[in-house]
C-alpha cells in the first residue's frame, strides 16, 4: 500500500466474498478493504478474510484491514491469520501512532468532519480518510452512506495523503472529486445492492466514474 504524496485511486471497502473481490481487482481498484468490526453488516471473519486476501495477485490492490477503536489483541488476532498491507483505524491520532509502531504496517486514520476546522493540520500517520460524521444513534462510525460537504476540503493543505469517503456512489463520485479536490476515494455502501451485499455492476460503474474524473 505505497502512499506517495499524490496517490490516485479507488478503495472498495467492506468486501466479504470472492466475486466482489474479483470484480474490484479486474476493474482496477487500488485498494480493497476488509471490515473487522462486529456491528457492521460487512464484518468478515478472519478465516474468510484470509482466503480473500490470498486471492489478491502480486501487484494487485493493497489489502486494508478496517478496525474501530481496536485493542492490540483484536489486531493481533486478525494479523495472525490474514495477510494485510495496511490498516484503516477509527481511533485518536496518538492511539493510531501506537498501532503503527506496534504492528509495523502503514496506518490511515479515519476522521469524521463537520466543519473545515475539523480537518487535521498535522499527522504522523501514512494517510487520512476524510469522511462525514455518523448520524446520531449509528452503531458504526463509518459505512453510513452519508456525504460530507465536499467543499470543506477544497484547497486544504493536507498533512498527508488522504482519501475522501462517505456516501459516494457511481453517480456522485465525479462531482465529489471535482468539488473536494480528492485524488483518492473510498466506498462501501454506494456499491451495494443491500447493506453488506456488494454489486459487481456498481463496483465497475464506480471505478469507471472515479477514474474518468481523476483524468479530467
Ligand atoms: O463499512 C462499514 O460498515 C464501516 C463500519 C465501521 C467503520 C467504517 C465503515 N466503513 C467505512 O466508512 C466509510 C464510508 O462508507 P460509505 O461508503 O458511506 O458506506 C468508508 O471509509 C468505509 O470504508
UniProtKB/TrEMBL annotation:
GO terms for biological process: L-tryptophan biosynthetic process. Keywords: Amino-acid biosynthesis, Aromatic amino acid biosynthesis, Isomerase, Tryptophan biosynthesis. Coiled coil: none annotated. One of its GO terms (molecular function) is phosphoribosylanthranilate isomerase activity. It catalyses: N-(5-phospho-beta-D-ribosyl)anthranilate = 1-(2-carboxyphenylamino)-1-deoxy-D-ribulose 5-phosphate. Pfam families: PRAI (PF00697). Its EC number is 5.3.1.24. Pathway: Amino-acid biosynthesis; L-tryptophan biosynthesis; L-tryptophan from chorismate: step 3/5. Residues 10-208 form the N-(5'phosphoribosyl) anthranilate isomerase (PRAI) domain. The keyword Isomerase applies. The keyword Amino-acid biosynthesis applies. Belongs to the TrpF family. This is N-(5'-phosphoribosyl)anthranilate isomerase. It comes from Novacetimonas maltaceti.
